[in-house]
Amino acid sequence: MKLNYTRPDTRSDGDPVDYTDTNIGTLSWKTWSTLPAVQLPHGMMEVFPYTTPGIGDRYLADRIYAFAAGGFALMPVVGPPGSAIEANASEFDHDLELATPYMYAALLEDSEIEVACTVSRHAALIRCFFPPTDGPSLIIYLGREANVTVESDGSLTGYQAFFGTRIYFQLEFDRTPQHVAIAASEAPTGRRLRRSLTPSKTITASFGTTASGADIRVRAAISYISAAQAKQNLRAELPDWDFEKVCAQARGIWNAALSRITVSGGTEAQKRTFYTSIYRCLQRMKNITEGGRYFSGFDGQVHEAGDMDFYNMDQPWDTYRCARPLQFLIEPENIDAMIQSYVRMCEQLGWVPITPTTGGERATMVGRHITAIIADAHAKGFRDFDLAGAYEGARTSALERTMIPWVKGPATELDRFYNEHAYFPSRPVREDMKVEDPEAWRDAVRDLVVSEMPHQITWLPDIHEPETVPEVNYWHRRQSVSITLENAYDDWCLAQLATALGRDDDAAHFTWRACGYRTLFNAATGFMWPKTADGEWVEPFHPTLSGGFAGEEYYAEMNAWSYTFHVQHDVLGLVDLMGGRQAFTRKLDELFTEQYVMDKPAFLGQFPDASGLIGQYSQGNEPSFHIPYLYNYAGAPWRAQRRVRDIMKLWYSDAPMGLSGDDDIGSLSSWYTFSAMGFYPVCPGSPVYDIGSPLFETATLHLPDGKSFIVEAREVSERNKYIQSATLNGEALDRPWFRHQDIVGGGRLVLHMGPRPNKAWGSAPGAAAPSRILE
Q1: 3-class SS at 172?
Q2: Segments of the chain with pLDDT less than 50
Q3: Is the full-model pTM beyond 0.90?
Q4: Of 89, 123, 443, 705, which has the most beta carbons under 10 Å away?
């Protein structure tokens, strides 16, 4: 092989970037895998191989169809290219591949062409080494909504539209092609290239005979603003064709970003998982700014950035829990600008955005969690943003837009009911579906399930009256319990902002709404239970199986077991509801051991998002993330330490199947990053972290002002996972939490570890972190 790119040896504590492996997670336990993407932290340009269409588990794909680079895809071939993209694809071998954050390289085995890709912020440099041949060519694939102009030197200027938003590109070759042709493209038979529109155009650049082989390079830049801006980005970032220089620069940028946290001790596999987790967080949250302007996915327009130079695309249902809190720690210099970008979005939309997409806002999932991100930033001391503007957008969103999942628009009768009663109502139960003895019905539910097998994956019949609210999405339904719980948390976050601004009446109202979760706690069963507008509990109801496909009649992708603990903002209040610390601990233990009624594959057929199962606990889906740490609030932090270690051991590895579900903008990865360091933000919006059980002897957060915060775990090992005692800055610490200020002020948390739990440490009645609503 001529390119001979190999991964640096990491056996002797190499640089953090050398521990990253972008193939981790490319074989999924659930639906779609991660991408082996080459991209700078938050970079606009992303390069990755398009592999065999239809194979969502990318690591198992046998062929490369092209290399995606922003607004186009490129494929080198020898000889006359085929008219169908299938004919131009090639087998590849992971053992002859290099997958890092700063470079991807692979051998196309059918043609013996070696390809290597690297990036800058808005641009990519791709190097193709051809064997001796009389017909090297480069094919550029474009989608249906595309336009391209071929310049006299063979360079290409154009755009490709994704969901109505144009991505402009400027593409150049390091030598003038002999011929450039444009033709229609045939799509893969019956399948599409994932993450792209089906190609409809091909541009083929043909080069002359290469008796000794050819090293042909392509550089390209993208822009959301204009073709001229794409060309300007290219000239500014890739002024020459020096692949090694660009690659070294990208490697250095990644190493600096990953080095914000350094660890010692642990296994080589744990370090690979750890640093790849940080990479995923920084790679997935994109910063779309250029030329003093930024692209808003919420309205599909380009806006003046003013003094704001940091904008992140977001999917807050996924990111608010731990991906954003991790970013607050490792990139604090960017947070004020990021929050101010939300303020600008509020100005554009009139309320806080939910989820951005290219081409305009769409509503997904549940909750208004950018409110939580703003509140978390304020609670952790970020002040250089327009708090009043952010609050007004969040308040308007809370009162005037609908909470119905997967729907955007103004408030409906369901939202008005929530504002008056502090819970989201479920549909009434039909008279013919009511039962005299709900407990007997639950006891016999297995017989009902078996009677339906193997003909369906929603095992219990729909018991409700037809939907009467036309705005409700027919597929995702009301998700009434999740709507109540997640918006109650957001209301608590909004109340904190109102208090900071002296808006006392608002603070009182949103605090009252934040207590609405209590209306859905069924003390007779111990679960968060759906309730109709008439105040009646929905019956018959089974906490494991009710709700239809994905549980979404009542819950978001989960069931009552997980969502019963979705009270991050008032954990001690939830402990009281459940009957005290011992009862709460028993309920947590039951969560981790409760089984599936039917066999697991059948259960997962109904709940495909509930991957990474330990009993009914699902590490593969975000609503579960904080739950293991709740033992800290019930006087049993040693059980949190055991659960967290079990989860990391069972559901994270440095293998392609190393993630237990969809990573969702770095969500699963950031959970591991926090937990491996030894702490976790249970309630964003509250500036505290709960202590778990670290993996490494030391984990050091290097802060921008030169300070550092060190978590030192003495005698830590696989067996020594229990905290025996602790000190914070030399003072004894007998509580399982610490404050954000302890980190940013610099210091050292020392945990003395052992093989058996010290059940007295951190377990006193007053030792839990503050988590009680003060009405």
Answers
A1: strand
A2: 10-11, 190-197, 357-359
A3: yes
A4: 123
